[in-house]
Amino acid sequence: MGPGSAIHVFIFALLISISGKFAGAEISSEVGINYGRLGNDLPSPSKSVELIKSLKAKRVKIYDANPDILKSLKNTDIQVSIMVPNALIPNMSTSQHFSDQWVETNVVPYYPDVKIRYLLVGNEILTNPDTGTWFNLVPAMRRIKISLTRRNIRKIKVGTPSAINVLESSSPPSNGTFRSDVSGPVIKPMLQFLNRTQSFFFIDFYPFFAWSENAPNISLDYALSNAQNVTYTDPGTNLTYTNLFDQMFDAVVFAMKRLGYPGIRVFIAETGWPNGGDFEQFGANTYNSATYNRNVVKKLTTIPAIGTPARPGVAIPAFIFSLYNENQKPGPGTERHFGLYYPNGTEVFEIDLSGKTPLSGYKKPLPLPTNNEPYKGQAMVCCG
Questions:
Q1: pLDDT tens profile 276-310
Q2: Which residues, 6 or more positions from 382, have their beta carbon under 8 angstroms from its beta carbon?
Q3: Choosing a second label site near 368 at 20 to 30 A (CA), which of 68, 75, 243, 286?
Q4: Residues 114-154: pLDDT tens digits?
């Protein structure tokens, strides 16, 4: 899955003030990295873990429960998120024994030497047309939580990542709403589960796609969280926004509140900006990728927490997408250009996910962008 499946025209989102104490323990603002492996030229798990350490990442999310990766993460003090593959959800939703065995095989041998803290059931299940999995999702989440409890494993939060297109309405902001096809039958019971277990609503979002699909109306600097004099004020709440990230985040907050769950914590399961792409994918370049990722890390790691207009002062945990440029990801060129590293292990640009390096501390010059406006060249055609 990944960012391409989350392409969605997303302009303005929610703005509602939420006060009060959020369920669960204090949220850590540490930033992690997504470690995808859809490439045929990627370094070994052990080398990859060393690169993760060099990023000063405190968390890593993998898209399965690969034993070689988990062994490489043993005794590293890096928090780990593992994932149940989409294809296993139907069986898991109907069989407690199946769920128990999955935990026995993929969690028990590594825990607690590997700091598994999140177990995600599937990836962006609600993005594509239902193939019989939508309504199995929450039952599978319940069963996996039971399996963990039976093993007295209580530090692992269970959730599932959704793409931003789980929302059907985001403009005007006060209309931010989950899609009608999933809101009642899937999202509401999911929120009930997350609230009861004090877990997170995991969301993938990419301001790049929201900006690129509506570039005439959204400032690039605003999308990059780099704007100095660009703001948006929601007419219904008078909350003022200075970047697209906050608007997209608050849209999710508003949608959850609409269903009666204003206090569930939100975890950014994926966000990033492509460092390259196809000719027509303007704005996808190293300069913008570095700018966005550095700005997001700075925002998320600031202490005390900045939060968003709807959740001021609330820490936002997040995973940046992604560790590598992955050459086997399907879709347009941007899908293969979200990495902080090239497959040979060299950095695409300097970045410190701990947030301890100030923006002025990055010394290597970035290549200036040449494709921030739509490509005006002639389309290539072929005749047969």
A1: 999 999 999 999 999 999 999 999 999 999 999 99
A2: none
A3: 243
A4: 999 999 999 999 998 988 899 999 999 999 999 999 999 99
Q: Which of 26, 30, 50, 124 is catalytic?
A: 124
The 10s digit of each residue's pLDDT in 82-103 is 999 999 999 999 999 999 999 9
Question: Rounded distance, CA 145 to CA 197, Å?
Answer: 9
Amino acid, res. 244: L
Strand order in the sheet with 318-320: 157-159, 116-121, 79-84, 59-62, 31-35, 318-320, 265-271, 200-204, 161-163
**Residue 179 · residue 173 · CB < 8 Å:** no
Phi and psi torsions of 139, nearest 5°? -55, -35
DSSP bridge partners of 116: 80
**3-class secondary structure for the chain?**
CCHHHHCCCCCCCCCCCCCCCCCCCCCCCCEEEEECCCCCCCCCHHHHHHHHHHCCCCEEEECCCCHHHHHHCCCCCCEEEEEECHHHHHHHHHCHHHHHHHHHHHCCCCCCCCCEEEEEECCCCCCCCCCCCHHHHHHHHHHHHHHHHHCCCCCCEEECEEEHHHEEECCCHHHCEECHHHHHHHHHHHHHHHHHCCCEEEEECCHHHHHHCCHHHCCHHHHCCCCCCCCEECCCCCCEECCHHHHHHHHHHHHHHHCCCCCCEEEEEEECCCCCCCCCCCCCCHHHHHHHHHHHHHHHHCCCCCECCCCECCCCCEEECCCECCCCCCCCHHHHCCCCECCCCCECCCCCCCCCCCHHHCCCCCCCCCCCCCCCCCCCCCCC
Are 90 and 129 in contact by the 8 Å Cβ rule? The answer is no
Catalytic entry in 30, 270, 326, 335: 270
| Cα-to-chain-centroid distance, residue 164 | 10
Give residue-wise pLDDT tens across range 215-273.
999 999 999 999 999 999 988 789 999 999 999 999 999 999 999 999 999 999 999 99
The identity of residue 88, as a single letter, is L
